[in-house]
Design a protein that fits this description.
about 325 residues, mainly alpha, MetI-like fold
């Protein structure tokens, strides 16, 4: 397994490099830049156009934006290889500082979303499978379809409107407390996007787990377990669920990898200063180094989550051999 992990990690390096190149190209071909946008915002109608143009050119030279694209790309790659992901145009601090500031909020929202997705999808998928074609099964399947079809941001907005209208609790949007700073205040803020995102993320898992459980329950070894007189809980948990979870792990892995990108709307809607919110702010400000740094870190996270999913396959299924 160690050789497999090392080989996969080495394969991931070109993937990360390709993502790094694509984000550089995407941020380089757009018209305008940080300096032009800032100059237009601060002085939309300059009294001395020649002086204003000279100031813009000087600022672009200081930031290295007047270099040809190949030169900028070579500098960018060289800096990344040295571990330097750039300096923010806005704050003049390392680009990853904003990522470090936002990761606690994104991690808390992501973990709460994943927790709700698992505690809802796994029991519903199991119950729906073992009670196939019963009224309970039909109700749970309808619930899964609705959760899958309804846009999660719309669900979160509706929940927020009802909470505000009926004054169920006060949502601290202006302060955005973390769980270890203000547990109750943090729960009041994060619970709505976590529930909306968790139900949407878990809906696909519910349907997939149900279909996999139905397939496994028809296998000979499960019928043998029933014939031995084992209790239902033992048959389901020890014999059926473990094998049914193998393809479900893929969906969970994609869910974990998509937590950062999937929560961008929630962070913006609830004013949570997480990674997604900071990416949107950087894009609007044309703060290219911050955008590039964030994308590299997120891409690295995604590819190594996929590697972890493959490793979990071997733990769940002893038939899988890493070569």
């Amino acid at each position: 397994m160690r050789n497999y992990i090392i080989r996969r990690a080495l394969i991931n390096i070109p993937v990360i490099f390709l993502v790094m190149t694509m984000v550089f190209i995407a941020t380089s071909v757009l018209p305008g830049d940080f300096v032009a946008q800032r100059a237009a915002a601060n002085n939309p109608i300059p009294s001395d156009p020649a002086a204003a143009k000279a100031q813009v050119e000087q600022a672009r030279h200081q930031l290295g934006l007047d270099d040809p694209v190949p030169v900028r790309y070579a500098k960018y790659v060289g800096n990344v290889l040295r571990g330097d992901l750039g300096t923010s145009f806005v704050t003049r601090k390392p680009a990853l500082d904003q990522f470090k500031d936002g990761i606690p909020y994104t991690a808390q929202l992501g973990l709460m979303t994943l927790f709700i997705a698992i505690i809802t999808s796994v029991p519903i998928g199991i119950i729906s499978a073992i009670r196939q074609d019963s009224p309970v099964d039909y109700v749970l399947r309808i619930f899964a379809i609705v959760a899958l079809a309804a846009p999660n941001f719309w669900v979160a907005t509706m929940i927020l409107l009802y909470v505000v209208k009926w004054k169920l609790w006060e949502v601290p949007i202006s302060t955005s407390p973390l769980l270890w700073e203000d547990p109750m205040g943090s729960m009041r803020l994060f619970i709505i996007p976590a529930v909306a995102g968790g139900l949407a993320a878990g809906a696909g898992v519910m349907r997939l787990l149900r279909s996999q459980m139905l397939e496994v329950l028809r296998q000979d070894y499960v019928r043998t377990a029933w014939s031995k007189g084992l209790r239902e809980r033992v048959v389901i948990v020890r014999h059926a669920l473990k094998n049914a979870l193998i393809p479900v792990i893929t969906i969970l892995g994609l869910t974990i990898a998509g937590l950062i990108s999937g929560n961008v709307v929630f962070e913006y809607l609830f004013n949570i200063p997480g990674v997604g919110n900071k990416i949107l702010t950087a894009i609007r400000a044309r703060d290219v180094p911050v955008v590039q740094a964030f994308v590299i870190v997120i891409a690295t996270f995604v590819v190594f989550v996929n590697l972890a999913v493959d490793v979990v396959y071997g733990v769940l299924d002893p038939r899988i051999r890493f070569s």
